[in-house]
Amino acid sequence: MPSRLFSTVLLVLSAALALGSAASAYVRPPEIPEGHADTSGQFLVAHPKMPANIFAHSVIYVVSHNADGAMGLIVNRLAGAGPLGKLLEAFGLASKAQREIKLYLGGPVGIGQGFVLHSDDYAGASTRALKKGLSLSTGLDVLEAIARGRGPRQVRMLFGYAGWSPGQLDGEIARGDWLLAPADTSLIFSEEPDKVWEEALKHAGLPL
């Protein structure tokens, strides 16, 4: 039986007709202006002194950071777990898949939009290549492939994303809200999300 939280997440996601395509606007960023700090493909690690909010103790994989703003996905905020078949049913797809999947809150923007951050051993119609051997899929094809056992080896299913207007993320980094660290796939796909933040802090050079 899926948890009540998982069922609630499914209700939110089913309001969307398909996995969100918002990320497609970020996969081919314009040329980065001189002096602009491009953090694409890196981790944003919340500073220990960040006030209690949705981003406190979060680790964000930056999908894109360019002159138009930035977009990323929180990788350590578990929302719920349940059968993959239930998730597919939420999108109107009949499936008996019983594999348990975990859903993560990718951020507070576009809660009705879904994203699958995964290893680059799978490519579908909606897949876009990222850095560090990662890819991002935003279509139902990746869920169907996972249900058939033909999906990517490593998967992080998320709903919602973190977004910043032009210059906003640069200002937050300069203010010290975020620490930068190299993205680590072992943390992105960790089965212990509650430990990811502390490990990422070490990568950022600020162990607790």
Biggest sheet descriptor? 10 strands, mixed
**Annotation field: number of helices:** 6
Proportion of beta-strand residues: 25-35%
N/C terminus separation? 38 Å
Shape: globular
Order of helices and strands: HEEEEHEEEEHEHEHH
Verbal overview:
The chain is an alpha+beta fold. It has a single domain (19-26, 38-76, 104-203), classed as VC0467-like (3-Layer(aba) Sandwich). The chain contains six helices and ten strands, in the order αββββαββββαβαβαα. Strands 1, 2, 3, 4, 5, 6, 7, 8, 9 and 10 form a ten-stranded mixed sheet that branches. A hairpin with a 2-residue loop joins strand 2 and strand 3. The N and C termini lie far apart (38 Å).
